Amino acid sequence: MAYQPKKRKITAEINVVPYIDVMLVLLIIFMVTAPFVSQGVDVDLPKTQTAETVADMNPDSNTPPIIVEVDKDGHLGVSINNAEMAHDLSLDELVARVKAELAANPKTLVMVGGDGRTPYSNIVETLDALSHAGVGSVGLMTDPLDKPGN
Q1: Burial of 118 (0-12, 13-18, 19+ CB in 10 A)
Q2: Going residue by residue through the chain (150 aa), what tens digit of pLDDT does each one get?
Q3: Could you tell me if residue 81 is left (phi over 0), alpha (psi between -120 and 50 degrees) or otherwise beta?
Q4: Side-chain half-sphere of 15: how many Cα atoms within 13 Å?
Q5: What SS3 class is residue 47?
Q6: pTM tops 0.70, yes or no
Q7: CATH fold for the domain made of 47-144
Q8: Percent of the chain that is helix, strand, coil (3-state, to 5)
């Protein structure tokens, strides 16, 4: 009787354990680095007593305003529909994004928030570019002034 080796059935399987290890390492890296990701332009708004809220300015609209921010170094950022702030935009990129949103939702308010320490010329350049782009009305953002006794 001649020896015949056992015939094994060939199976095609993928060992996923190394992929799970890599995925867990990536998850840990993202969890550790997430707090360091910038969420927008850091703007320290000037304070005023007579400012209106966005709801007072446009009570008929439920859409959130388009927020344009200029930080103290003149860097521009824009937030549309309360989405994450896109920052470090050029003036042309900012205007293009605002025009695209206004083409889709013409009644959306446009608000410009400038850091209290930014040069006035940066705010004026932004307002001028928005005006040339056809944005009819632009509001200026401020923080409410703390009243004595509060």
Answers
A1: buried
A2: 567 777 778 878 888 888 999 999 999 999 988 877 655 555 565 666 666 665 565 655 677 888 888 888 888 888 887 777 777 888 899 899 888 888 888 888 888 888 888 888 888 888 888 888 888 778 887 777 665 554
A3: left
A4: 3
A5: strand
A6: no
A7: Nucleotidyltransferase; domain 5 (3.30.420)
A8: 35, 15, 50
Q: What is the DSSP letter of 114?
A: E
Segment holding 17, helix H or strand E: helix 17-33
User: Which residue type sits at 50?
Assistant: T
Sheet holding 76-79, edge to edge: 86-89, 76-79, 66-70, 110-114, 138-140
